[in-house]
Amino acid sequence: MTDQNPAFRFIGQPLPRNEDARLLTGRGRFSDDFSFPDQTYAEMVRSPHAHARIVEIDRSKAEKMPGVLGVFTGADCLADRLGAIPHDPVPKTKFDMKLHAPGGGSIFIGPHVLLPHDKVRHAGEAVVMVVAESQAQALDAAEAVAIEYEELPCVTHSEDAMKPGAPVVWDEISDNILVDTRFGNPDETDRVLAAAPHVISMVFHIDRVTGAPMEPRSAVAQYDKNLDRYTICTGSGGAVRQKRELAEVLGVVPEKIRVLSYDVGGNFGTRNRVYPESGLVLWAARKIGRPVKYTATRSECFISDYQGRDLVTKLELGLDERGRFLALRATNISNAGAHCVSLSPLSKGAGLITGSYDIPVASLRAISVFTNTVPTQAYRSSGRPEVTFAIERLIDVASRKLDIDRVALRRRNMIRPKSMPYRNAVGMLYDSGTYEDNMDRAMQLADWDGFKARKRDAKKRGKLLGLGLANYVESSIGAPREQTRINVHPDRRVDVVIGTQPAGQGHETSFAQVVADLIAVPVESVRIILGDTDIVHVGGGSHSGRSMRHAATVFAMAAVELIGKGKRATAEILDTTADRVDFNGGRFAARESNRSFDFFELTEEMTRRKMPDDLAVGLCVVADNEMHEPVFPNGCAICEIEIDPESCDLRLTRYASVDDVGRCINPLIVDGQTHGAIVQGIGQALWEQCVVERRSGQPLCGSFMDYGMPRSDRLPSFATKIVEVLSPTNPLGIKAGGEGGTTAAPAVIVSAIIDALAPYGIDDIKMPVTPDRVWQAIHDRKKNAFLNQ
Q: Are 348 and 404 within 8 A, CB to CB?
C-alpha cells in the first residue's frame, strides 16, 4: 500500500474498478460481440509452407459452392491497388535509441501486403480470403481452394539467417540483416576488457512466446455506399493509429474510416499493430456490398498473431579484483520474422543493457534479421525482460566464479540515488530511483534470512530449494502525443475524451480518479470516453507503459485551463474580474461576494445567462501535448523454487516483488497488474515457448495442448510492495506500473533454479525450464562426472 498524499482525495486510493460490474455480467464490448445486419463471414486459406512461390491458385470449385460470395487473392489486391500495411517500426521519440540499416541507411521493413501474390514467407501466412453467407460455408469453400506451391529453402533462427549462403527472405536484402547499429564506446570498451582482471562471458537465446489473448483476433466491417465510408469494430492498442494505417492500405483519406475499439480481450502488445485481416474485411465489405466478419480460431492465433521476444544476446562483463564492474560488451540479435512490424524490443533493450548498475563504459551492437517466421512485435515490457535476464544471469555467474556473494556484488555496483538523474554507458538518462533500497525491501519481504532454515527443511524432505534474486530497471516512453477533451455538464457529469485506451488496465477508474482530484469533483461523476475514432481524434494508444503518464499530463494541463475558464465565468456572473476569483476546496468564490459555485453549479448558472466568447459553449477544454522524456520504473524480485531431484518437478513456493512505479494512482489496480505481469514472466520462464521446427519452418505449437500456460494451482500467493519515487518528468511524477513484474520474472526464476541445482555444478539452463530440461541437465552432469572419474 502507498502512503496517501493529503493533497489528494482519490489519487492513491484503492478504489474498486468501475468497469468490473459491466465486464463480469456479460456487458463487455469485445470485438466478437459486434455484428451488423446482413453480415457475411470471412475465412483465410493459410500457407502450409514457411517459404514458397505461389505457382497457381485454383478457386473455381470454391466459387461455385453454396453461399460463397467471393474468393479473393493477392492478384485481386494488386488489381484494386491496395497498399501494404504501413508499419512504422522505428521508435520516434527524441530519446529512443536510434536504429538504422547496415551502413547507416534507411531500414527496409519487408512490405506487409494483405495477401501475397508472389510467394509466402512464413507458415500460417494468409494467401486467400473466402467470404460466404455463413462461417461454415466459408470454411468449406476455403478447403476447396487449390494452391500449387514451389517450396523454397527456409531459415528460422536469427543466427542461421546471417550465415553466408542462408536462404534469402527478401531479395532486397541478400544477408537478411535489416538493422545493424552500434551504441556506446566500442574502442574504450575493448581496451578496458582487454586489461580487466576478470571477464565473464555468456550467450543466451530468449525464445519466442505468444500473447495467447483470451479473445482471439476478430474484426467486423461494413461499408456505407451512400456516405462512401467504412466502419470496423476490432480490438487494438490504439484506434487512432489503426484508422490512419487502414486508410493508407485502402488508399482513402482517414476521414473515410471509423474504428470502434472498446474492450480488448487481451493485448500486451500483440494487438498494437494492424493485421492483414482488418484490411481484408474492410475491402471485402465494399467488394460484396455487405458487412464482413472474421474471427480467428485459437490455432490461427498460434500461427499468425504477432509474437514476442526471440533475442540472442552475447555479453562480456569485465570486473576488477574487488568485483567492481569495469565494462560491458554486448551483441543483441533480434529475430524480426518475415516482416518488420516493430523494432521497439531491440531499441528498448539497447538502452538498458547495463541494467541497474554503474558500469563506466559499454558497447552494444544491435542487429535485426529477417527469417521465415511469424513477425515479432513489442510484447509486455518490450525488450526489457530479455536484457534484464542477460545482465542478472551474468552477475549470478560472475559471483560464483569470483566467489563473491551475489547480493554483495550487486550492492558494490548499483547506481546510487545521489547519482540520479544518471546517464548510463549507452546514453540513456535514468530519471529517479532507489535501487539498493528496493533490493533491501524485497529481501525483507521475502524473508531472505529465513531461507537457510527452509532449505534445510526441504533437504530433509528430499527436495532441492533454490533462492533467486533479480533487480530490474525498465523504460517507458511510447508515442509522444496525447490529447484530451473535458466537458463539464450541469447534470453533474464530467465527460473526458482521451486518446489512449485500455486493454484491461482499469483506465475508466484510474483516469477518473486523476480528473476528479485535479478539478475537485466527485469521482463517480467522471465518465471516460474512448475507443471511437469519430469522437477520439488524437491519441497514442496503450503501449510501452505510456497511458497513465501521458493521460495524467494532459488532464493536468486541461485542469489548469478549465479552472481558468471557471474563474472567468464566475467573474462574469459575480460582476468582478477573474484575478479576484479563487478556486479552493472545489468551489469558485469572489472575495467581494458571499456566493460560491462548484463546477456543476457554475455550469448550470452559465446556462441561464448569455456568456461571452468561448464561455458561451460552457466549461469545456481541449489539451494537447507531446512528451518525449522517458521514465524508468524499477524494482527487485525474489523467489524460491523447490525441485524434486527424482521427478524433476518444479514448484514455485515464494515470490516477492518490490516495484517503483512513481506516483501510484490506484494501488489496487497496480497490485493486480503486478500480479498479472509476474505470472506472464513466470510463464515464459517455466512453460511458454513457440517452437518452430528449424529445418522446415513448421510451427509445432498450434493449441494449448502444445503450448504451456501458467495456472493458478502452480503459483503461490505473491508478496508485493509499491514504492513511489516520483519522476521529475511529468506533473504527477508517474512512471508506469504494468510491466515491471514481467521484466524481472524470467531472470529471478532461472536464478532460483540454478541456485537449487548448485550441488550438481549447473550454472545455466535454457527457458522454459521444464522438468525434462532439469532432468537432462542433472543427468548430463552425472554422466560427465562418471566419465571423468
A: no
